[in-house]
Write a structure and sequence with these properties.
Elements: E1 2-3, E2 8-9, H1 16-35, H2 42-59, H3 64-75, H4 79-86, H5 94-105, H6 110-130, H7 135-142, H8 145-150, H9 159-170, H10 180-190, H11 194-213, H12 215-224, H13 229-248, H14 270-285, E3 287-288, H15 294-314, H16 319-338, H17 344-360, H18 369-373, H19 378-412, H20 418-427, E4 435-438, H21 444-450, E5 454-456, E6 461-463, H22 477-490, E7 497-501, E8 512-520, E9 530-537
Parallel strand pairs: 4-7
Antiparallel strand pairs: 1-2, 1-3, 5-6, 7-9, 8-9
């Protein structure tokens, strides 16, 4: 099994009794630690999270996926041009429109980080103040991998998922009087990302199922709601879904087809099926099984399905939340298998569905309808609940360890070399030079930090953000130098060019004088190392 936090394999021997004993001891240590905290309150978690999060994002070096949307907003010539550019991104409009508003306030990408920090802090605050989990679980979750790293430090639209899902759970009881609040949150969630759309769809189906099959709830709603409330809520949800689907549907000239390379997989592929189940395992326990090793795939799939089954049985006393957990997992899993395996930021939504299902379950009284129907004994439920609690705590511990490790790593090793490179260019007085930069997709961070455009050989013109569509061609180093030679010959006054590459230059030309300036190789994302050269006619 391969841990995707550092891609280093490990081997272990699993002893159930020893594992249970060690988990119990760890649980006691955590309880002992949290019991002596200076403020044993959810607000303590929120304040500490905010302060440490602020330190983290001030240190974080943004990479291309963070700054490319900022550049799209910055350099789109009109609203129509902005929407046309968003079509190639495979994301709905909410994040881009948010950035457009932020840029009206401060034309500096750091405001995007501040906004992203605020999104995550509010999400954690909602979770700590209103979720039914105990203090220990809230503490572990808040500093887990997804809230404390993936959806905190990396400024992307995916943090919206956590915010709107948790806001939905917080105001869930309002559905007894009005659906409008929930409809607005579902609309926002649907327009945050493609995965947000999938979760929003699952929550909408859950509301519909409850409304259709729970006559008591339906009668209570009609007695207390406005006549137009149901119609208005449906309109909000439908409009939001249609808008999201329209925006994320890629244009015909998109190379990535909405960010996805391989189209739909319509046949049964056992290895791919196990890899898809492995994404559930990765979402819970931060490990992605090695796709070439059958043993890894099978073991991780069995453990993932075991946790899912435990959760299904635990939620069997809460049919509505059981329905949501099934639908939410099935919809995301179908997309994972049929279309896109995804990265942690994507399949982390399996984890959010688990947390949301357990949270929503607190709104319902226990029902024995399903237990009686399937003749499940009460003792079996007690046994399952015990093991589900152990599994949940294991997940939270692993998430906590992953969060602390990843956050700390970002403090020591820059995520991208972009900020250090940009700072050097500014201090060396090179920011106003004519710059040729390649590969264009990896130069977005520099364009964002320096607040200027570069000449991109891939486009053969000035640019900043990258859209993977017709008209853009990948180029090799000989072609880059050939274009630089043409640029030098066409200039009125002979002037050297500053060349920035994300890979070391390994060729030369007799008609060009190339002098290395400096390189920046300390980075976690190896495709965002930068090499600077002066290029002049020989």
């Amino acid at each position: 099994m391969t841990l995707w936090l550092d891609d280093r394999p490990y081997i272990y021997n699993f002893d159930p009794n020893k594992f249970h004993s060690e988990l119990t001891m760890l649980n006691k240590k955590i309880i002992k630690y949290t019991s002596i905290l200076p403020i044993h309150s959810p607000w303590f978690i929120i304040i500490i999270f905010s302060v440490i999060g602020l330190i983290g994002f001030l240190n974080h070096s943004m990479w291309r996926d963070e700054l490319n949307p900022w550049l799209i907003v910055r350099d789109s010539e009109s609203l129509g041009d902005l929407i046309a550019n968003i079509h190639y991104e495979g994301h709905p409009v909410l994040w881009y429109f948010s950035l457009a508003i932020l840029r009206k306030i401060v034309d500096n990408p750091m405001i995007m980080q501040i906004f992203h920090l605020a999104i995550t802090v509010v999400s954690v605050a909602l979770f700590c103040l209103y979720s039914p989990f105990n203090y220990q679980q809230k503490f572990l979750f808040s500093f887990g991998f997804f809230p404390f790293y993936e959806y905190l430090l990396i400024s992307r639209n995916y943090a919206f998922s956590m915010l709107f899902i948790f806001a939905f759970c917080t105001v869930f009881s309002s559905r007894q009087i009005t659906y409008v609040y929930l409809a607005i949150l579902l609309g926002l969630l649907a327009n945050s990302s493609a995965y947000g759309l999938l979760v929003s769809f699952s929550l909408s189906l859950t509301l519909l199922a409850e409304f259709c099959f729970d006559s008591e709830h339906r009668q209570q709603y009609f007695n207390q709601s406005q006549k137009s409330d149901l119609f208005l809520s449906i309109v909000i949800i439908m409009f939001s879904f249609l808008l999201s689907i329209y925006i994320i549907t890629p244009p015909t000239d998109s190379y990535l087809y909405g960010g996805l390379n391989n189209g739909w997989l319509m046949q049964l592929d056992i290895r791919h099926l196990l890899r898809s189940i492995g994404r559930i395992f990765g979402s819970y326990l931060l490990i992605i099984p090695a796709h070439k090793r059958w043993l890894d795939l099978i073991v991780c799939a069995v453990i993932a399905l075991f946790i899912v089954i435990l959760t299904l049985i635990k939620l069997s006393k809460k049919p509505v939340t059981l329905f949501f957990y099934i639908i939410g997992n099935c919809v995301i899993f179908a997309f994972t298998y049929l279309r896109f395996l995804g990265m942690p930021r994507h399949f982390g939504h399996f984890y959010l569905v688990l947390i949301a299902a357990l949270w929503l379950g607190s709104y319902y009284q226990e029902s024995t309808v399903l237990l009686n129907k399937f003749s499940i004994r009460p003792n079996s439920i007690i046994f399952v609940q015990k093991w589900h609690n152990i599994a949940l705590m294991l997940i939270l511990y692993v998430q906590f360890g992953g969060g602390i490790y990843s956050f700390s790593r970002d403090l020591v090793v820059p995520f991208s070399a972009s900020r250090e490179t940009a700072q050097y260019i500014q201090k060396a007085g090179l920011a106003n030079e004519f710059i040729v930069a390649s590969r264009d997709a990896n130069m977005a961070p520099l364009s964002g930090y320096l607040n200027r455009k570069f000449y991109y050989p891939e486009l053969q013109k000035m640019g900043s953000f990258t859209l993977f569509k017709k008209g853009r061609q990948e180029v090799e180093q000989p072609e880059i130098l050939s274009q630089i030679n043409s640029l030098l010959k066409n200039q009125d006054e002979q002037k050297k060019i500053l060349l920035i590459l994300n890979k070391k230059l390994n060729i030369n030309r007799n008609d060009l004088k190339i002098v290395p300036i400096k390189d920046f190789q300390k980075t976690w994302v190896d495709s965002e190392q930068y090499y600077l050269y002066w290029v002049d006619e020989a």
